[in-house]
User: Fold these one by one.
Assistant:
Number 1:
Amino acid sequence: MADHHCCSSHSHCDESSTTDETKSSSSPTHNFSSNDIHKHFNSNDNDNINEESQTVSQLFDIAWSNQNDLQSSSADTTTDDYSSKLLHTIRLLESLEKRLISLELFSDNESIDEVSTTNIRYLLLNAYLAWLYQTKRSKPSQRLINVQHACDYYSKFLTMTRNYEIHKYSIPKAPTNDDCGNMEQLNSRDVDMMKMAQDRASKIQAHLKRREEEETMRAFEEAMKHDGSDEEAKRKFYLSKIRWWVDTALNDLVYLHDELRVLLQRKSIEPTNDDESHRRPGPLPPSRPLKPLVITRDMLQSKAIGLGYPSAPTMTIDEFYESLARRGLAPTPEQSKAMASGPKLPSASDMEKEEVAKEAHVERDDPDMISYLRSKDDYMDDHHRGEGNRHNRS
């Protein structure tokens, strides 16, 4: 396993530091006050002092909590707080990795039963680092480095867990520049629709199973916060979480290797600075002469505002209505006047006169009016208000 510690031997630089160095060399110098500089160095020194004063277990508890927050479905991955927390967790786990290597907690000559319950969870360190580098936001020029780190950490995690016989899967190898040199190999893949459908069904089943395992682990972790005295339950929980990350690593490596091939191909295609310096701009192709566009002013003007306009008016509005009246589609002027002077709706005064006349008939005991009012009352008794047409009404 000594050859798998390549990720810890070299320092992984964040894009923020690389970008700052590039900006400082290319952009004009900024005037920072002495207070800002002291604040920056004091904050970094305080973080280093706190990490050195804490134990490995305490630091891993912080990284565990940060990892759960970063992987939460409710986390907003677009904020600066999320990015800074992710970078802080990477730096914390990398320092933990160096301390664990110096402590030599893991060996190839022991089984998982010989590892203490407290130390079992440290096997997740490389899986966490791989996921963080995979999730880390970066520029296109830095994405290749992040993907390579993620592949290295996942491979290291799978190798350590296989040495402890937690799984027996074969570890896929990351593609190299030689593997990605031929573009035709990727483009000439045979597409088997039946195999794709089977893979999709198996992935759906695996996803549902993983969701159930996540819910079980989350519930178990909540129970451990209240009662952490059961050593055997802790051990089962850590082993189940390691197995879950084994499946995650195998699935993520498939997509990371595909992305790595694309990034390596793009890097091989992009010209270097030396190639661009030796290039000389060739002669520009001769431009084709433009054909003159002749516009006839009279023709366009006659179409737009002259007599040649296709929608020019041919009659006035009065003539138009007269033509409609002759065809019987509109009333004639005489008919319009007759309609205007026709019967009108009764006004309030007419209705009052009708009520006065009705009361006069009642006072005179007019038999016709009395029979009319009685029949009206009988009708109202038998037919209540709103009883009209109730067709298609529930």
Number 2:
Amino acid sequence: MASVMLSGAESLKPIRAIAPSGIGSAGSDFPKRFSSQKGLVCYTRNPRTRTIAPKCSLSSSRPVSQPRFIQHKQEAFWFYRFLSIVYDHIINPGHWTEDMRDEALEPADLYDRKMTVVDVGGGTGFTTLGIVKHVDAKNVTILDQSPHQLAKAKEKEPLKECRIIEGDAEDLPFPTDYADRYISAGSIEYWPDPQRGIREAYRVLKIGGKACIIGPVYPTFWLSRFFADLWMLFPKEEEYIEWFRKAGFKNVQIKRIGPKWYRGVRRHGLIMGCSVTGEKPFTGDSPLQLGPKVEDVKKPVNKFVFLSRLILGAIAGAYFVLIPIYMWLKDKIVPKGWPI
């Protein structure tokens, strides 16, 4: 189901195609095989396997330079300073429902209550509430750079025993080979360097541990692409796979998720659109070596430029608050079984 060509109406019909190599292209050089688990695509390294390229990635190439006004830690910090007030009441109902959360966490394989789990970019703890259904709260650490978001997490009774700390997803305060599971939902879109964040996920996991990153998918509709590129990072599916592979992960899988009222439509992009998992095959640090971090949060910023970016980014983000309302209304108006 997940390996499909998605048209404007997104009929879920598998189509076989040869995909060109290279990140950001229509496809990737990672052959996929169907998983028996619904909604999953597994990426393997067998060069003789042909690739099934999802059309949700067949959008126009993005320009080399992107404004992405909120894809920076300082802008994201202040963005959530205000959004944290209404996050659980505005964002979750339209973009990150309980059903979506539980479905997205399923590939993480949280089967043991004694597992050590880190929830990176855990924010208000909404995703963590799904984690502690399967893992004892005392074994879970919530990390986020926003004290305002974490303050909301601390108020939730099921999370009282969780360890809650401020930190940077690209420079985690955990030792190598520390956790059984790494979870990050709705965070990668704000990382200036996603590859570095996924490399850190590899480092902190124990051998055999799983990373599960839940995040946006890039739109194919032109207006949605415009606002996505202004607001924050909306990766393509093959970009997720490339980042995981380069970090050293094996058995990489993608599971597509979305609100029920979208009826599978993904042309507008989804703030929570896919759950990507990978396994750490060897102990120790990631084989990938990187240079200095893209963004130094301690470096002074031009206040006018900073404020302009924050305002423009918030305006662009408002578009994606309206999209779920639009899709919900279409679902109510258009008869079931008809493409929307």
